[in-house]
């Protein structure tokens, strides 16, 4: 099938690779403009652009899809469908109507749950037992289009946003290939979403990473997993900011923010309910360290308190 592909990060690159491997003709790739990255802040092409260029696919990086010249360029391709995955730009109605079979989005949740920008992290924060991939026929709303295919994925107790992202990227790649196979046979029925069951996955902010010890240990453990690798959960101790990369909830009472134990197993801190065992930490400018190594350079004793 002749396709236009629109996507930017690694999640989208996995889908593009699968479509290329499946033999689809990728006539044009849309991706975000190169952005500064790394310590040198050099302009860096997106993972999708890098993959497209490796395969000799033409790449277009418009700042907006509302431009008439850009829309004419898309129409000239004559693609049967446009596949969209974590692209980063809104598709106006004029673009949605260009491909004969419309625009299909690869969304990292089981819609209508977690429409929006951060479905992976919000599923972890909510303690959801499962998530998955929805292939959706795009319309003018925010992830409101009819569902064409869904594939569920259990959320493991140890999953972080990174590990869940990687699992969903692979699942999304496989699911879009399966969906297009059925679409080519006109055997991909659409199912309307139940708007009453919709939830919204708001974009993450750095401020969310701040640990509030008054919350329950279970909630904070979820937050540590959801904010790994961004924005990373952060605790304040004697004016310093410590990043918390791994932690788990423990059923033990203790005053919020008070150190209950500090040994090779971790730093146990009281919460509003239960206690949080900090397992992997990082000081500003330092390396990520297991608790035992961290404590060797930052000794703590029961009774000390984290900043409120």
Structure commentary:
The structure is a single chain. The protein is α/β, with parallel strands linked by helices. The protein folds into 2 domains: 2-201, Formyl transferase, N-terminal domain (Rossmann fold), CATH 3.40.50.170; 206-297, Methionyl-tRNA Fmet Formyltransferase, Chain A, domain 2, CATH 3.10.25.10. Helices cover 27% and strands 28% of the residues. The strands form 4 sheets. It has a 7-stranded mixed β-sheet with strand order 5-2-1-6-7-9-10. Strands 12, 13, 14, 15, 16 and 17 form a 6-stranded antiparallel β-sheet that branches. A two-stranded antiparallel sheet has the order 3-4. Strand 1 (2-7), helix 1 and strand 2 form a beta-alpha-beta unit. It is elongated, with a radius of gyration of 22 Å. The chain starts with a strand and ends in an 11-residue tail after the last helix.
